[in-house]
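Entry 14. Structure prediction run on the chain below.
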Amino acid sequence: MTTVLRPALVWKEARGLGSTWLTAAALLVAVGFVEPGLAIVLFYVGAGALLGALSIGQEFTDRTLAGLLAQPAARSSVLLHKLGVVAAMLLALGGMAWAYGLTPLAVARAWPEISPTGRVLVTVLPVLGGVLLAPCLTLLTRSALAGCVFTIALSIVMMIGSQAAVPCCTGTRRRLHRRTPGSSTSSCTRC
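Output returned:
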């Protein structure tokens, strides 16, 4: 079965998430001007999780899921339309964050102790979490708020886990170990 683009479903989803996206975009611009450091990263992760959770969660909140699934359209088509609209909105939000300096190179300059994997996760994870993780968690918990909170928590756990998975004596991590007096190398007992 092929999925046909249904403009009514796209318009319905864009209309439902439009005000949230515009608010997130305006706040991202404001945060980018005021504090382009950690605040923009936290806001970007939160906005991605919120948009992803609301794409499915608004159907639970408004109690329109039964009516939506009763429509003469394949359920996979409805889900793909929802995820497509969220992906487009999150890519636009990601482009704005990229324009305000949330690139892997800028993250490396701001936080030199973050591993290369962590730098990529900071820039890519909010989009992937908003498109893939938040809708799934929202369906599992049947709550937009729970889907958003769990997505943010799992994103933070993944970012921290990427730091822990890096071997201890590579690159910038070498500076974090104690140095023995009179030695220029670190005294790591794990290596």
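The CA atoms of residues 177 and 186 lie 6 Å apart.
Filed with the rest of this week's runs.
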